[in-house]
Amino acid sequence: MSLRSIDLNLLVALDALLTEQHVTRAADRIGLSQPAMSNALGRLRGMFGDELLVRTSTGMQATPRAIELTEPLRQLLRQVERVLESDAGFDPATSERTFTIRMSDILAFLILPPLLARKPMQSRLAYSTVHLPPADTIEALERDEVDVAVSMGLDPSTAIHAEKLLADRMVCVMRTSHPIARRRLTFKTFIAQDYVKQSMSPTDLRFVDSVLADMGHKRRIALNVPHWLVIPHVLKRTDLLAVMPGRLAAALNDDELSAFDLPFDSAPFDWMMYWHRRHDRSKASLWLRNELRQVCAAF
What we know:
The chain is about 40% helix and about 20% strand. It has helices spanning about 10-20, 25-30, 35-50, 65-85, 105-115, 135-140, 185-190, 200-215, 230-235, 245-250, 285-295; strands at about 55, 60, 100, 125-130, 150, 160-170, 170-175, 195-200, 220-225, 240-245, 255-260, 270-275. It has a five-stranded mixed beta sheet with strand order 4-3-5-12-6, with helices on both faces. Strand 1 (about 55) and strand 2 (about 60) form a beta hairpin.
C-alpha cells in the first residue's frame, strides 16, 4: 500500500468507527453525515482488504484485523496531531489542544478541580485522564500516549524525567462509629482487623504490606477494589478498615470517617510528575507542568 494513496481523513473515520462500532455514532463523532461515513467504511474495506466491521444480531462487531489495527491507529493519529500542532505558538487562552494526564482517581479527586479552575476563561483547551498500572504508564509516556503522568514509585528509563509534586504518608481509616475508633490504635489491634484494599496502586504494597511482611505479619484483605473512591463508602457501611494516603483522607473531610497514624514505622512518600524528555522545552508541556506545580503548591 503506497502512502501517497492514503487519505488521512479515512484514518480519522476508521478510528471513529472502531471506537463507536456504529456507523451513525461514528459519523456524529467526527461531524460527517451517515452516508458519508458509510462511503468511508466502504473505501476502508477496500483499502485494507477486510470487512473491518461486520453486522451481527447484537450490532456491528470489529473483525480480528480491525482489532489489530485499533491501538497502532490511535498512536499514529496522535503522532500526526503532534506534528501538525504549532507548539511555538501555543497559547492556553486560544488553544484547542487536549492534554492527556495519567492519574488515579485519588489524584483526580485532589488535582482536577483546582486545575480546571485555573483554565483561562472561554478557553477551549481540554484535559483527558487515564488510569494505568505503573509499567503501562512508562510505556504510555514513551509512546507519547500521555503528556504527563502523576504517580509514585515508578521505575522509568533515563528518557523519562521526574519531579516531586506532593509529599504524603499512609494512614489508617475507619468509620467514626467503629468499635475500635475510640481506643488507641495499637499494632495488635491493627493486625487483627479485616481490610479493604485498593488493588492497582503500589502504595499499599510498598508502604504497608511489605513493611508488615518484613515484621513477619500480613493483613487480612476482605475486599480488593480497583478505585480509591469506592473505599470511603465501604468503610462507612462495614467494620472494614483501610490504609490510604493521608491527603485523600484529609480531602474527604467526612465526619463519618476517622484517620489514625499507623502503629508501626512507615516511610513517607512523594507523588511525582513524570514526562518524556523529548518534551522538556515544549511550550505546551512546560505550561501544563507549571499548572500542575502551581496546583500542588497550594495544598
